[in-house]
Structure formats: C-alpha cells, structure tokens
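Appendix C reproduces, verbatim, an entry submitted by the partner laboratory led by Prof. M.T., so that reviewers can inspect both the input and the predicted structure.
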Amino acid sequence: MQQQSLIPLVSNPNPDPPAQDQPIPRERPEMRSDGVHFHRRRLIQWLSQALTKPLLACLENEILSFVCECLPEIRSLVHRIWFVYKHRPDLHGVDLGPFFEKTSCGTYRANRRTHGCSDDIERFLAVRPWLTAIDVLLLAEAWSRGVEWCAHNHSEQ
C-alpha cells in the first residue's frame, strides 16, 4: 500500500515524452519529492546556525543578569527578616513624626511635615500595594532626609 503525499507534487500531465524544442517539465525548485519546502528548510538551517550562538550568548547574558539582580534581593530578604524579628514593625508601626506641632501663637495644629510624609507614603502604597512596613520605614526616612536637604539648601540662599 502506497502512502499518498499530502502536498501535491508538480508532475508532467502528458505521459508522452516532450518534443526536442520543448523544455522538459521539472518539479518546482522549492518543492522536493518528500514534500518539504527546500528554501524554507535551507533558511531554517541557516538561521539556526547563524543565530544559535548569539542567541545563546544573549540568553546567557539575560540569565546571568537576572541571577545577579536576584542575589542582592535574596541577601536583602535575610536582613529584612532579621529586622522584622528584632524591631517588630508589625506591632509597633512606623513612626512618621509628631502628629501636632506648636504654632508661634502657642496653639497646636496638625504637623505639616508628618501629614505630608503620610500623604506621600499613602500615594506610594496605592501604586505599589506589595510594599511592607520595612519599605514604609525606608520611605519615611528618605522623605525626612529630603526635607532636611531642602531646608539646608533654602537656608543658604
């Protein structure tokens, strides 16, 4: 029993031999008798040979870069766990500063610095809900240092 090819092959419909002045019909150059596109196969072979080494090098670089980025995160995780165990920010919260400040008149009002820091942290947490209490502590510290830097630079002018 012969298997039929799923891809029809080009063949001469006329079983008589062609005359001398007529060219001999041949299969299309892109088709082979096994039904595989010759040009596509050649292209795939060329691409696999030409791109394999650079692609593997690129993947190796990406993997290496990813691993190099993950190692400090793993190291940071160990320090974060130790910090959480020692300071328990989940129980004590994060100190953002005094809630009230005394005005020049002697009355009290909401502390603008604490309120500003709290607002900025809330906006940050709205965009990045995965942040932890340690991240909030770092944000508060960075915010305070930014305020100090501004106060120092504005006093010099």
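The CA atoms of residues 98 and 114 lie 7 Å apart. Additional entries are available on request from the coordinating office.
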